[in-house]
Amino acid sequence: MSFLRAARAALAGQNCLPQILVAVVAVVVLAGLSLSCGSSSHSTAGPNHNAYITLPSRGSVLLLHINGATGAITLGAETPQVQNTSPTGIALLPSKKFLYAVNSSSFADSISIFNVASDGTLALSGTPTPAGNGPNDAVIDPSGKYLLVTNNFGNNVSVYSIDPSSGALSEVTGSPFPANLNPSEILITPSGKFVYVTNSGIGRVTAFTFSNGVLSPPTSVFSGAGAFGLAVDVSEKFLYVANPSASNPPPFSSTTGNISGFNIDPSSGALTPIQGSPFPATNGKGPSAVTVDPSGRFVYATTPGSSFSIWCFTITPTNGQLVAATNSPFSLTAGGLFALVDPRGNYLYIGSQDANGIAGYTYDPSTGAPTAITGSPFSTGAAPGKMVLSE
Questions:
Q1: pLDDT for the residue 43
Q2: Cα(89)–Cα(353) distance, rounded to whole angstroms?
Q3: Is 304 helix (H, G, I), strand (E, B) or coil?
Q4: Integer angstrom CA distances of residue 34 from 40, 339, 365, 388
Q5: Residues contacting 165, CB < 8 A, separation 6+
């Protein structure tokens, strides 16, 4: 059994080593540049909607129902379990017609295509598409024309064109594209111009331009040991990366892990460190998931457990620097698999390494302080891989 697949089999354990590449992090975009800590409020409660998570140990995808007024999660239908597969990455077409689950298998790596019914239930569409070597994470470009998948063992990224009628995938000319050693997480910027991939084993971020399904020859920068989760703001000015294994200088030397911040060149997508980066917390260790609320006010970085497990920073709008929020880090139930905020900015969801798979929070719009949603954490029956919202 390969290292990555053995790591995926260990998802249910609480000790999530930063090097384990199965942890998934949801990539969430920042929206807006108003970052002051003055008075503001969340968006009004949204309608009830659905979400989906992969269950790697069960070989399935689980439908979730989200109460728009409270953020509470109830379980929907689970797709039939497929033996010898370990789905992790997941991507939903903007039209919500098709959903894609990336399967790592000891027999045949593949991508499952699901039709999405009006009630959110999934039906497998045809035979899964063959994938690259060790597929791990997936994202769809803003136009809905292309699916991009990191291949951890192949050291590359596959790009597929999407048939708008059937959802079928066809690999584009030139794919797969080299992406340095063991690419794990991937994101595409809101404009669709730039693609970024983390290379955890070498602590780097690989950058591409993206046009008509083609990735440019990559460039890369050092981020920090174990570089994993990443998020970008909607204006494409700043990129943030979680470095779970990085060491810190005094007075933060007792804290392991930090968040790197980068300026994004608007023409080339090249990355340069933000002044003062990387940004540590006063306590805690190993943040591997990172997200930013849609107002662009707060960055959240999360780690397994309940001690100093949620790090919260405010963003300085002029230069992207991070400043620790009051009382951060927060000792609350969290996890290191993913962190994402719903598009309305009402709820923060965090993926845990155990069967109590999702911790849910509201957060104070002025201070960023999280408060648990009633009923949280929400059990998913098995440790999740990655989560995607359909709102």
A1: 58
A2: 16
A3: coil
A4: 11, 22, 12, 26
A5: none
In order of 149, 153, 383, the CA distances from 88 in angstroms are 11, 15, 11
Distance separating the N- and C-terminal Cα atoms of the chain: 38
Residue 7 corresponds to which tokens in the numbers above?
């790591």
Q: How far apart are CA 225 and CA 245, in angstroms?
A: 5
For residues 211 and 201, give the distance between their C-alpha atoms in angstroms, rounded to a whole number.
28
pLDDT at position 111: 96
In the chain, % of residues over pLDDT 90:
80
Strands 370-372 and 358-363: antiparallel
Reduce the DSSP state of residue 3 to 3 states and report it: helix
Distance of CA 310 to the CA centre of its chain: 16
Q: Using a CB cutoff of 8 Å and minimum separation of 24, what contacts does 307-311 make?
A: 307/283, 307/331, 308/281, 308/283, 308/284, 309/284, 309/333, 309/334, 309/335, 310/334, 310/350, 310/361, 310/370, 311/259, 311/281, 311/284, 311/287
CA–CA dist 389, 306 (Å, integer): 25
Tell me the domain boundaries of the chain.
3-389
Enter the CATH code of domain 3-389: 2.130.10.10
Q: Taking the model in full, what pTM does it have?
A: 0.88
Amino acid type, 26: A
Residue pointed to by tokens 């689950």: 101
Identify the burial level of 318 via C-beta atoms within 10 angstroms of its C-beta, where 0-12 means exposed, 13-18 middle and 19 or more buried. Answer: exposed
Give which of 163, 358, 138, 322 is closest to 239, Cα–Cα. 322
Residue count (the chain): 391
Q: In the block, which residue shows the tokens 């540590």?
A: 280
